[in-house]
Amino acid sequence: MSKPTIALVAHDHKKPDLLAWANANMQRLEQCRLVGTGTTGGLIAEQTGLTVQRFKSGPLGGDQQIGALIAEGELDALFFFWDPLNPAPHDPDVKALLRLCSVWNVPVACNRSTADLLITSPLFLSLDYQREVPNY
Length: 136
Ligand SMILES: O=C(CO)COP(=O)(O)O
Fold this sequence. Notes:
It holds the Pfam family MGS. Substrate binds at residues 11, 15, 37-40, 57-58, 90. It comes from Alteromonas arenosi. By secondary structure, the protein is an alpha/beta fold. The chain is built from 6 helices and 5 strands. Strands 3-2-1-4-5 form a 5-stranded parallel β-sheet, with helices on both faces. Helix 3 (38-48) links the parallel strand 2 and strand 3 (52-54). Helix 1 (15-24) packs across helix 3 (38-48) and helix 4 (62-71) runs parallel beside helix 5. The model has no long low-confidence stretch (mean pLDDT 96). Residues 9, 11, 37-40, 57-59, 62-63, 88, 94 line the site of 1,3-dihydroxyacetonephosphate. 1,3-dihydroxyacetonephosphate is lined by residues 9, 11, 37-40, 57-59, 62-63, 88, 94.
């Protein structure tokens, strides 16, 4: 398997959580191709030194760009620390992104504990594991 592609996204109040998690998982993240929404991706690249391909900011279409990667079969996992306590102007985009993860059986972590379990799973970087992709 080539490097898995994973997306990193966080709403503003959750960015510190995602950043702390990224710092704690540098070695694993270095083995992945990283993409992210604009502000999140920039922050992670700047503060960890990891290379992150940045899409537009979430409210400007970044979630949808990541959704497009999913629809094209190019995303292996989404780490999306969304904010359950503050409404986002682009909530439909957020829902659409999470929905596509279910449609295409893409693993998604919405908080730090799930992100820990996912990134440390022996299946995650395993050559033997093939995620089942639905055949619509
Ligand atoms: O709004 C977002 C996800 O819905 C994240 O966008 P930013 O990374 O640009 O803040």
